[in-house]
Predict the structure.
Amino acid sequence: MKRKIAVALTALGVLALSIFIATALDRIKQLEKAVARLEKTATPVSKDHPDRIAQAEFTPDGKAIRTYDDNSLRIWQVPSAGKPVTIAPLPNQPSQELPPGWQPHEFNGMTYYVVPLAHPSGTRVALAK
């Protein structure tokens, strides 16, 4: 019984996959026809705007752009950004005055504080001034 169910599910999966592939191939053919039709009707330079560039591409090193018109080739230099600036953060400077009982410790270059939850004498300490 289990074997019949497994065979039936496998056959159903193969059928679904073949239908999916057939519709995908049909869609690809439709899209290829549409692209071919659009490529035939497309003009590289618009008649309304004759000053527009027909074709442009980057040079292999990416530092210039080549543009092609009817009779000419122009090379445009791409402005390059300057050297990247590395900004170093200021070191963590603790304030001069720490609340009572705070103990500074340094770990991996950062200062951490051990903060007591209660004053040793049992009285409350005001942390904010």
In short: The longest strand covers residues 64-68. The mean pLDDT is 78. Helices lie at 2-41. Residues 2-77 form one domain.
